[in-house]
Design brief:
Length: about 60
C-alpha cells in the first residue's frame, strides 16, 4: 500500500448529492483541477470511494 494518495478533482460538484459535496469540502477540494496529498488511511480511502466519479487518485511512495 502507498504511503500517500494524490487526489485531483476532475469533475464539478454541482448537481451531486449533499454528502458528496461535503466529502469534497472535507478532503479540501474546492474546484476542478485542485490537487491534495493525504496520508493513506482507511478514512481517506472511504472518502475517495464516495466521490470516485469526481476525482482521480494516484498512489505516491
Amino acid at each position: 500500500m502507498a504511503n500517500r494518495l494524490k487526489v485531483t478533482q476532475i469533475k464539478s460538484k454541482i448537481g451531486n448529492k449533499p454528502n458528496q459535496r461535503e466529502t469534497l469540502r472535507t478532503l479540501g477540494l474546492k474546484r476542478i483541477g485542485d490537487i491534495i496529498v493525504k496520508e493513506d488511511s482507511p478514512s481517506v480511502r472511504g472518502m475517495v470511494q464516495t466521490v470516485a466519479h469526481l476525482v482521480k487518485v494516484e498512489e505516491i511512495n
